[in-house]
Amino acid sequence: MTQVRRATPGDAGVLARLLWDFNTEFGAETDDVDVLASRFARLLDLDAAYAVLAEDGDDATAFALVTLRPAIWFDGPVATLDELYVVPHLRDRGTGTQVLDLCRRLARETGAPEMHINVDEVDADTRRFYERHGFTNVESEADGRMLCYVGSTA
């Protein structure tokens, strides 16, 4: 039976392995697991981030990472779901929903009225998952697509 809980800094190595698996599954560039583990440990010591971990017995089956940032538009922070991953052979069994539900509950507890998620346009399955859970794309006919720009700080 799957148990979903808030992760602790002690879970950093498990979270790092899941993130590495996620990135390599989709051919994305990724750092080594030890580098990711160090970053997870640092992030999970902050008030501005939390992770959720799903486990089935001794097996880690899914995780999510949420960061919080101050916002001028609300009294509370804006939550950003940075990552959500379910191991491939356990997809479509409700684990992702359990992880997302806990992420949202924890966000509400911090006072965050919104959760933002960036999804690749071509990732139809992921878009359907979030839409099924009440998330909407902010793109409108009049305004066009909202784009996310990334640049170096150097």
Keywords:
154 residues, alpha+beta, Aminopeptidase, 4 helices
Summarize the structure in short:
GO terms for molecular function: acyltransferase activity. By secondary structure, the protein is an alpha+beta fold. It has helices spanning 12-25, 33-43, 95-110, 124-132; strands at 2-6, 49-56, 59-69, 78-86, 114-117.
Distance between the termini: 47 Å
Total count of helical runs of at least 4 residues: 4
Rg over CA atoms: 16 Å
Nearest-integer average pLDDT: 92
Structural class: alpha+beta
CATH class placement? Alpha Beta
Annotated CATH topology: Aminopeptidase
Helix percent reads 25-40%
Could you list the spans in which at least 5 consecutive residues all have pLDDT below 50? Answer: none
Largest sheet: 5 strands, mixed
CATH architecture: 3-Layer(aba) Sandwich
CATH superfamily: Gcn5-related N-acetyltransferase (GNAT)
Strand order of the largest sheet: 1-2-3-4-5
Quantity of strands, as a count = 5
Domain count, please report it: 1
